[in-house]
Design goal:
The complex is a heterodimer of chains A (about 240) and B (about 210).
Chain A lengths: L4 E2 L2 H4 L8 E4 L9 H10 L4 E4 L9 H7 L3 E6 L8 H8 L4 E4 L2 H12 L4 E4 L13 E4 L2 E7 L3 E11 L5 E2 L8 H7 E11 L19 E4 L6 H6 L8
Parallel strand pairs in A: 1-12, 2-3, 2-9, 3-4, 4-5, 9-11, 11-12
Antiparallel strand pairs in A: 6-8, 7-8, 9-10
Chain B lengths: L7 H11 L5 E4 L18 E4 L3 E7 L17 E9 L2 H9 L5 E5 L2 E3 L4 E2 L15 H7 L2 E5 L11 E2 L14 E3 L3 E6 L2 E7 L5 H6 L9
Classes of the chains: A alpha/beta (about 240), B alpha/beta (about 210).
């Protein structure tokens, strides 16, 4: 019997260790697993490395973890936004390390990790400051940069529908990093709006096959980044 | 003669006019977004958004708004009939793999060889944020740069050699400014069009590298 369903977000993140590398899905508010992130905040793990497209907005989600001093390093493509003060302040004060990665390279490093590839050459960032310290090689006369796979200990992902085997579908641009992050982490933890019966998802429509998913939590009314930001919510550990 | 610089909508309209029917196009965040508002009637252009969206439609209004349906600028948008959704690694494979016909990016500087600088001014306290610009710069078949011809203080932005940190090397196809349309050719920047009333000499005086003409 395979049943990956977990009763609560608290139980789902209970064993995340200090120092873990955590892959966090989402681009803007779309696909952002805020409920799982807040459970991780309450759980208390620290010295985390967070891998996500952005470095958090307002005082919720990733930004709440940064504000509570739980994050040692962020690996992302775009740490700046209109509401990224928490990260900016921590970075300028030297409390947090930043690794800026071009967005496509970030995605491909995660994909490579899940696909069993240790590294790959890409033309992206060749001849720019972001190639510094990396191996460079020419293919067909074009300069390429060696980039390494990016593994997670844990992935926190938001999807729309899931069944007890962990098969997932996503709603529109919520998909973003979810499918590749599920493949690249030792433990993929997914919050879904709807849990459906086995067989209800058409095989043709499954986006993340259940083999990549370890834990599935039903969060029928997920927190919305947009609403939390609008209301200036400041989420602190509870 | 006197001249009036184009505003951003006029530059965007010119780009929209130049994009061939049937093109797959990515528009950078900010100024380039205006291009979508000026696609001529009868032209079918498919917009790609790097968060994994092909067939992105206009901004969503009122009850159309769904915060799981957003563009690269993180604003809610609609989907056109025929749209498709894919994950981030596929989206950037699409970009890097040379499948996009055109991307339109903003620019701080463009070098005469087509080097592009648009992600960092290199100031010591600048937060390094790159997003998808480097991938778009190397991947799209045609890289159009929409920018003002000079900075607010009058410094040329089309220059002999870029001094800001590079986004992509020899990447730019055409520069669309408020004063001119300039193709980056193997021989150098070739003026295709100048706004009404401006002479080549006046344009050259506002440019940091020698312009070529046919």
């Amino acid at each position: 019997m395979i049943d990956k369903r977990i009763a609560s977000v608290e139980e789902a993140v209970a064993d995340v260790q200090d120092g873990a590398t955590v892959l966090v899905s989402g681009f803007g508010g779309a696909g952002s697993p805020i409920d799982l992130l807040h459970a991780l905040l309450d759980q208390g793990a620290k010295e985390l490395t967070i891998v996500s497209n952005n470095a958090g907005n307002g005082q919720i989600g990733i930004a709440a973890l940064v504000a509570a001093d739980r994050v040692a390093k962020i690996i992302c493509s775009f740490p700046r936004s209109s509401q990224s003060e928490v990260f900016t302040e921590a970075y300028r004060a030297g409390r947090i390390e930043l690794e800026t990665v071009p967005q496509g390279t970030l995605a491909e490093r995660i994909r490579a990790a899940g696909a069993g590839l240790p590294a790959f050459y890409t033309p992206t960032s060749a001849g720019t400051p972001l190639e510094d310290g990396k191996d460079v090689r020419y293919f067909n006369g074009v300069r390429h940069v060696l980039e390494h796979a990016l593994h997670g200990d844990v992935a926190l992902v938001k999807a729309q529908n899931g069944d007890r085997w962990g098969n997932l579908t996503y709603h529109m641009t919520q998909r973003n990093f979810g499918p590749i992050m599920c493949t690249a982490a030792k433990k993929a933890i997914v919050q879904v709006n709807h849990v459906v019966g086995l067989g209800e998802l058409e095989p043709d429509n499954v986006v993340t096959p259940g083999i990549y998913v370890d834990r599935l939590v039903h969060v029928p009314e997920p927190l919305s980044e947009t609403d939390l930001l609008k209301n200036n919510v400041r989420r602190t550990p509870q | 003669m006197s001249w009036t610089a184009w505003n951003n909508d006029q530059i965007a309209a010119r780009i929209a006019h130049d994009i061939p029917d049937g093109s797959y196009v990515n528009l950078g965040i900010g100024r380039p977004e205006a291009v979508a508002n000026h696609i001529p009637e009868g032209k079918e252009i498919v917009f790609q958004s790097e968060n994994g969206f092909l067939g992105m439609g206009p901004a969503a209004k009122d009850n159309e708004i769904d915060w799981e349906v957003i563009n690269a600028g993180k604003k809610p948008v609609t989907a056109v009939p025929g749209a498709s959704i894919f994950h981030h690694a596929d989206s950037f494979a699409m970009i890097r793999g040379g499948h996009l016909d055109v991307c339109v990016l903003g620019g701080f500087q463009v070098g005469r060889n087509g080097d592009l600088a648009n992600w960092s001014t290199g100031e010591p306290d600048a937060l390094p944020a790159v997003g998808g610009a480097m991938d778009l710069g190397v991947g799209a078949r045609n890289v159009f740069v929409l920018m003002t011809h000079t900075t607010k203080t009058g410094e040329p932005k089309l220059v002999e050699k870029i001094t800001y940190p590079a986004t992509a090397i020899r990447a730019v196809t055409t520069v669309y400014t408020d004063l001119a349309v300039i193709d980056i050719t193997p021989a150098g920047p070739l003026v295709r069009d100048i706004i009404e009333g401006m002479s080549l000499e006046e344009l050259q005086a506002k440019t940091g590298t020698k312009l070529l003409t046919n």
